[in-house]
Design goal:
254 residues, alpha/beta, Rossmann fold, 2 domains, 10 helices
Length: 254
């Protein structure tokens, strides 16, 4: 599939290669590296069923390492939208982008909350809510969980700045650093292994430019298992309450 997609670009096509995220990345990593990225082909890898929320299919299909695998490839753009509307807009932007793109999305029915007319700009974070006490950097399904957490925190008197990092690479360093200068602490929320994902990228950025307290809401270096999406998010510490707890913890570290 990846080899055919790379070949189609030679004839001027813009191929979208799609399957489960586990197969679209882990099973064909060498082909992506050699035939697509190293060769500079304009292939779009649109990978579904990513993360724990794949659910009952279990650990063999719930890839939690794909963002890390893809963002380590030189020249690969990595996009992780948060709902249907943002995914639609991201797909159009991906087609118009010249170069290889990894477009990640999930399986379950999920709340739709991004307005249809919201412009999707690759590499530009989306400010969801302004705040002064703490920043939540969220991506994918955990943007919704972070919205829920921000509402609870607001009721508790905590002012949350929520930023939707839909593009993992290139990272919007300007937006991240501007927010951190204001709040001085942050939580990163992602449906991915805490090693190699968005949290690792932000931690690397902050360590080089603006060291600050940072907490992670992510899978703690393990495989998943079979269960419903809600059950798995709770068990692996990716639920609304986990984000709330991480915010309180990081504020104490300021």
């Amino acid at each position: 599939m990846i080899g055919i997609a790379a070949g189609l670009t030679i004839g001027g096509k813009i191929p979208f290669a799609t399957t489960f995220a586990n197969f679209a990345t882990g099973r064909v990593y060498d082909q992506i590296r050699q035939s697509v990225v190293y060769s500079g082909k304009n292939v779009k890898i649109a990978a579904s069923h990513a993360g724990l929320t794949l659910g009952e299919d279990g650990a063999t299909h719930q890839i939690l390492e794909d963002i890390g695998l893809m963002q380590m490839l030189p020249g690969m753009t990595v996009i992780n939208p948060c709902d249907y509307n943002q995914t639609y807009a991201a797909t159009i932007a991906t087609a118009n982008h010249d170069g290889p793109v990894y477009l990640r999305f999930g399986r379950p029915k999920w709340p739709i909350f991004i307005p249809k007319d919201t412009i999707f700009e690759i590499g530009k974070a989306l400010l969801m809510n302004e705040g002064t006490d703490v920043t939540i950097f969220a991506t994918g399904h955990l943007v919704w969980k972070s919205i829920e957490a921000a509402k609870q925190l607001q009721e508790q008197g905590v002012s949350v700045e929520l930023i939707n990092i839909h593009t993992i690479k290139p990272l919007d360093e300007t937006a991240i650093l501007a927010s951190m200068r204001k709040t001085k602490c942050a939580v990163v929320a992602e449906e991915h292994n805490r090693i190699g994902g968005l949290g690792s990228s932000i931690a690397s950025l902050l360590s080089r430019t603006n060291p600050a307290p940072l907490e992670f809401v992510a899978v703690n270096d393990s495989f998943g298992e079979s269960g419903t999406p809600d059950q798995l998010l709770k068990k692996y510490g990716l639920d609304t309450s986990d984000i709330v707890a991480a915010v309180h913890k990081v504020i104490k570290r300021k």
